[in-house]
Amino acid sequence: QMYGVKDPVSEEWTPGVFASIWQRYNNRSLKYTTWIICDGPVDAIWIENLNTVLDDNKILTLANNDRIPMTDNCRIVFEVQDLRNASPATVSRAGIIYVSASDLGWEPIVQAWLLRRPELGSLRSTEVDILRPLFEKWLKAAPPNGGAAVDFFDWNLRNIKKIMEANDSIVIVNTLNILAASLKSCVEENVVLAEDAYRRLLTFAVMWGFGGLLEPEERKKS
Known about the structure:
Elements: E1 4-6, E2 13-15, H1 17-25, E3 34-39, H2 44-47, H3 51-54, E4 59-61, E5 67-69, E6 74-79, H4 88-93, H5 101-104, H6 107-116, H7 124-140, H8 152-159, H9 168-182, H10 184-189, H11 195-211, H12 216-221
Parallel strand pairs: 3-6
Antiparallel strand pairs: 1-2, 4-5
């Protein structure tokens, strides 16, 4: 699915997702620079096939003997949680930038999302003025009866058990995606809702953004 597969009977080649993207954007006729972002864990099975891309040759070699060179107007980035399964050959071929979750946090993601809202329409600035203090009050401030928790994310980490691990960035992106989908009709019709309506929509987004990874019993706690 990633690089492609060759039918053993007909020998017909079906390109994979990454091979199709690589062939499309490694094109010198394009006037802009393309960044290909691979977001996910580094698996030794698929990352080893990119060693020829990461070394000085910068050529993707496929199983059907196609060789697609990397052009000067294309860049590739791997956004990974850790390098636990990466081989020394892979690590030595790439530049490593480490960003701690505590250094980044969730606030820049929310601020960037709010800053982009006015680009969708003239009335989105009013929407941002309503939503910004709600984010500050509900997520940044310590929750009522939260004990030692400094904010809602800290309380969530201390008290809620998820069915799978997810850092603050993933949780807040899920919340913002749900909120953006809920506000899509407002953007299309260029209308602004009442403040109470935004309060309810953000409540729904936070509820599922944080609670979507919880079992029913844990959802009752939150």
